[in-house]
Design brief:
By secondary structure, the chain is mainly α. About 45% of the residues lie in helices and about 10% in strands. Strands 1-2 form a two-stranded antiparallel ribbon.
């Protein structure tokens, strides 16, 4: 998506405003978005409380609203984390989980939520240099392991062995960079 303001760079920032009861979204690049920062003179809007901000992000999700023509289904039973008793509704209200087990319990809802909040389930944007190197190496290892699994499934064991060795080399490099091999 291209920036609505300069029409040159990729849009990485989405600004959502409610004007006269209507939700309006604008997509800007980093440079143009910095011009519309809340403390910039041209940006005139009342301050938003953190609770309102989280409510806007995690409030009634649009993906749960039924589309026209879909079959009527019984409303789903509220999911509850077996470890801490936290419900998905509580998560939407508070904007955080109760325990690490909540991630597994509510995992089916997270991709849709991430797509709504940001451009997708993966971070796309700038990272500090050292962290970026670690991330790139981890991503390469992950891709190699996927290719290695496919090679084993297709009984291409020589190719799988080459990929295994390649992954081990990257793991050594990752340890050198200070990343966690997992």
């Amino acid at each position: 998506m291209i920036c609505e303001h300069c029409k040159q760079r990729n849009a990485t920032v989405t600004v959502t405003q409610v004007q006269n009861g209507q939700k309006v979204e604008h997509h800007y690049c980093d440079v143009c978005a910095s011009q519309f920062h809340p403390f910039h003179a041209e940006f005139k809007q009342e301050p938003i409380s953190i609770q309102q901000l989280l409510s806007n992000w995690f409030g009634s999700p649009t993906w749960q609203q039924q589309q026209v023509g879909e079959k009527q289904q019984a409303p789903p039973q509220p999911q509850t984390c077996p470890q801490c008793g936290f419900t998905y509704k509580q998560f939407l209200k508070e904007g955080k989980f109760g325990c690490p087990s909540c991630y597994d319990t509510f995992s089916e809802h997270l991709p849709k939520l991430f797509n709504r909040i940001q451009a997708g389930p993966q971070h796309i944007g700038k990272m500090p240099g050292a962290r970026n190197n670690v991330y790139v190496i981890k991503k390469q290892i992950e891709d190699i392991r996927k290719r290695m699994k496919i090679a084993v499934d297709e009984e291409q064991f020589e190719e799988a062995a080459k990929l295994r060795d390649e992954a081990k080399e990257l793991e050594k490099q990752l340890q050198f960079e200070g990343g966690d091999v997992s």
